[in-house]
Specification:
Elements lengths: L12 E7 L11 E5 L13 E2 L10 H4 L2 H10 L4 E6 L3 E2 L10 H5 L5 H8 L4 E4 L2 E2 L5 H8 L3 H13 L4 H9 L2 E2 L5 E4 H21 L12 H17 L3 E4 L1 E2 L6 H14 L8
Parallel strand pairs: 1-2, 1-4, 2-3, 6-10
Antiparallel strand pairs: 4-9, 5-11, 6-9, 7-8
Helix pairs in contact: 6-8, 7-9, 8-9
Length: 274
């Protein structure tokens, strides 16, 4: 049975692994498997901590995706350092993988000790910047998803957080960003980031109701939030370290590449995750 109360997975750092299904997990003590969206599926017991205890927005998982796990981590875990990764996407450490199966590949994820070493000289740990090369962040979004979601986000910043507008425009015009809603940082920094991010998303979902979309497009608040991390970083001026990412299972780069090019040149918007 999953524990009923929030606990830290290690004395000094907790990295939540957001998942909605049973899956192989890292064995390092820093990691805490977290069943996100558990409030939507109370009948499902993965044996992991659920994001539906304590101060929770688990019921919003169909819109917020892994961010319901970030909220739970922010509000319920008492650890000096906190982080979020995904069951199918982790930070890669120094240890090589021991095989091609998920368990063997998970041997290569970063350890709590590696995270703490990087945080000794940096404010935040992020995945390596994803570069689009032939697209800007804004044009890629426009080709793949409803662009009004970014336009309304900018309006909200203009009205409530005007100091962030210049960085927002800079990020939207750039050809790469730190994506995936993956991060490790001090509890103080996470509190600052979440206190800034979630009110923006709450207002965004008030103005653009996710319920109007199908299941794939209803998750737009989570996608918009990926584009906001660098806006926050640029405005606040925090230093960061980057780590490569690792997937426990093979990534279908051919399908990803075809979908990217079809969106860019044929106007075919994304309709499913891949």
């Amino acid at each position: 049975m999953a524990p009923d109360t929030a606990t830290t997975a290690a004395p000094s750092i907790t990295v939540a692994v957001a998942t909605h299904k049973a899956y192989a997990m890292p064995t390092d003590a820093a990691y805490l498997p977290l069943h996100v969206g558990k409030a939507l599926h109370p009948e499902l017991d993965l044996g992991f901590q659920g994001d539906d205890t304590g101060d929770s927005i688990s019921a919003l998982n169909a819109y917020y995706s892994e961010l319901t796990g970030l909220w739970w981590l922010w509000k319920n875990v008492d650890a000096p350092y906190k982080g979020l990764v995904h069951y199918r996407r982790h930070f890669k450490g120094h240890t090589p993988a021991t095989g091609k199966d998920p368990e063997g590949r998970l041997a290569a994820v970063a350890t709590g000790e590696e995270y703490l070493g990087l945080l000794d000289g940096n404010d935040i740990i992020l995945p390596k910047r994803r570069n689009y090369y032939i697209e800007t962040i804004r044009s890629h979004y426009a080709h793949t998803l409803p662009i009004e979601q970014l336009d309304v986000t900018r309006q909200i910043l203009e009205e409530t957080q005007p100091d962030y507008v210049a960085a927002f425009d800079d990020v939207m015009g750039s050809r790469g960003a730190h994506m995936f809603n993956m991060m490790v940082m001090s509890s103080e920094r996470l509190d600052e980031y979440c206190s800034w991010l979630f009110p923006i998303l709450a207002e965004l979902t008030h103005r653009i109701d996710p319920a109007q979309y199908d299941a794939f497009n209803a998750r737009y608040p989570g996608r918009v939030s990926e584009r906001l991390m660098d806006v926050w970083l640029k405005t606040c001026g925090y230093g960061y370290a980057e780590l490569p990412t690792l997937s426990p299972e093979p990534v279908d780069w051919l399908t990803k590449g075809k979908s990217f090019l079809a969106a860019k040149f044929l106007g075919k918007k994304y309709g499913a995750s891949f």
